[in-house]
Specification:
By secondary structure, the protein is an alpha+beta fold. The chain folds into two domains: 245 residues, Aminohydrolase, N-terminal nucleophile (Ntn) domain (Glutamine Phosphoribosylpyrophosphate, subunit 1, domain 1), CATH 3.60.20.10; 196 residues, Rossmann fold.
Length: 488
């Protein structure tokens, strides 16, 4: 029986999207609204915008999608020339209004509004330390801990305060923040989460992805570097390398699933990277079949690449209901038994009697993939061969992606052949780790990543930012994982 959780959690979700703009004379609240609208895929639980006119800051945030939170009237009241915005999907902190962002705090020198994408791994330690110094927290998010560190740094300038705060925080963070007169962007030393810098009519813009720049007509300049702080004010753009020793480790799942297909990372289009993964997958995992179909929408580019490289025709095998969000009315018992049909419905005329290659971006718990195979067989598919454009996900993420505990990750507990049996597929193959890096590197140019490296911890368990043992135990218990094998 597939309940609401199964339908919407058998995948991975990024925690947040951030946006910032410094643009005197422009309607910055509306521009931020459109930027957040483009970043909606990175968080659907809450949305917020903070705006400053140089003297005062206004913050407006609420639970819901960007289009649900803001009205034309709301945006008109947010007057100023600096703005930051945030869309949230929670991994640290519960789902409630207090955890919505931007966070706003002040000290005797300036006020601070902050929006954060990522996840800290020393939140509890920092919170306890700050509470001993008299800090009071309104939320349970690690983002408020960062904001409190900055305002309590005791420095007169925001630049010095951020520099001090960054020395204490560990984990993944792309942050946009603003005072009354400055817009700031900061990235952690590993650059796990993306942050792009653009320009529009001579004004600077920050966005989690380039699609946020595109929607307002801004041109992409470059990515904020790992360990870098950029400060934008009336004098223009200044750059400070806060952390000299960096270890670039961009989350490779940005290429696999998280980023929008029309975004660019490392200067190359994400959709083309995914298509290249499909081509590589076809080389590594060929099969005789009549039709290649994607699991929409995330499997579309990889399926196109697979079809192109294999010579097998590409087709649309599912119709997707695009009006089901992550929060909808709890289905009744009758509807619940229909399971994944709430989101996907197979096209019988296309797939009946066919040997199918079904391409998807990942398998997390396996429940959704199992239902997909069942639906295709019921619709008359002769054979179902699953091909996955990422390696098996065996390890949880601690850096801002909501993944299951290891005991719930099917690939951490079963061999590929046993997963195939669980899915009732005729065959199952994943792209190799080497093949995935090669596919992404090939589209970056000349077989190299232009100095870029990736975090692949969810595939290989190698965490570029060391994880405290206490935190690891909550997700990585191998004994629990082995016992969980009986669940599948």
């Amino acid at each position: 029986m597939l309940d609401q959780l199964d339908i919407f959690s058998d995948t991975v979700y990024d925690e947040c999207g951030v946006f910032g703009i410094y643009a005197p004379g422009e309607a910055v609240a509306k521009l931020t609204y459109y930027g957040l609208y483009a970043l909606q895929h990175r968080g659907q639980e809450s949305a917020g915008i903070a705006v400053s006119d140089g003297d005062n800051t206004m913050v407006f945030k609420d639970m819901g999608l960007v289009s649900q939170v803001f009205t034309e009237r709301d945006l008109t009241t947010l007057q100023g020339h600096i703005a930051i915005g945030h869309v949230r999907y929670s991994t640290t902190g519960s789902t409630n209004w207090e955890n919505a962002q931007p966070i706003h705090k002040a000290n005797e020198y300036w006020s601070l509004s902050l929006a954060h994408n990522g996840n800290l791994i020393n939140t509890n330690e920092l919170r306890r330390r700050l509470e001993r110094r008299g800090s009071e927290f309104q939320s349970t998010s690690d983002s408020e801990v960062i904001a409190e560190l900055v305002v309590r740094a005791g420095r007169k300038t925001i630049e010095a305060s951020v520099r001090d705060a960054v020395r204490h925080i560990k984990g993944a963070f792309s942050i946009v923040m603003m005072t009354e007169d400055k817009l700031i962007g900061v990235r952690d030393a590993n650059g796990v989460r993306p942050l792009a810098l653009g320009i529009m009519n001579g004004h600077y813009v920050l966005s989690s992805e380039t699609c946020g720049l595109d929607v307002i007509g801004a041109d992409f300049l470059r990515e904020v570097l790992p360990g870098e702080m950029v400060v934008i004010d009336g004098k223009g753009l200044s750059s400070y390398q806060l952390i000299e020793k960096t270890n670039p480790s961009l989350c490779i799942f940005e290429f696999v699933y998280l980023a929008r297909p029309d975004s660019s990372i490392y200067g190359r289009n994400v959709a083309e990277a995914r298509k290249n993964m499909g081509r590589q997958l076809a080389r590594e995992a060929p099969v005789e079949a009549d039709l290649v179909i994607p699991v929409p929408d995330s499997g579309n580019p990889a399926a196109q690449g697979y079809a192109e490289a294999s010579g097998i025709p590409y087709g649309e095998g599912f119709v997707k209901n695009r009006y089901i969000g992550r929060t909808f009315i709890q289905p009744s018992q009758t509807i619940r038994q229909l399971g994944i049909r709430l989101k996907l419905n197979p096209l019988r005329d296309v797939i009946e009697g066919k040997r199918l290659v079904v391409v998807d971006d990942s398998i997390v718990r396996g429940n959704t993939s199992k239902k997909i195979v069942q639906m295709l067989r019921k619709a008359g598919a002769k054979e179902v061969h699953m091909r996955i454009s990422s390696p098996p996900i065996e390890w949880p993420c601690f850096y801002g992606i909501d993944t299951a505990e290891r005991k719930d990750l099917i690939a951490a507990n079963l061999t590929v052949d046993r997963i195939r049996t669980f899915l009732s597929a005729d065959s199952l193959q994943y792209i190799s780790q080497k093949g995935l890096v090669s596919a992404v590197s090939d589209i970056i140019g000349d077989g190299s990543t232009n100095g870029a490296a990736f975090c692949m911890a969810c595939f290989d368990g190698v965490y570029p930012i060391p994880i405290p043992s206490r935190l690891k135990m909550t997700k990585l218990s191998l004994e629990k994982a082995k016992k969980a094998e009986t669940l599948f």
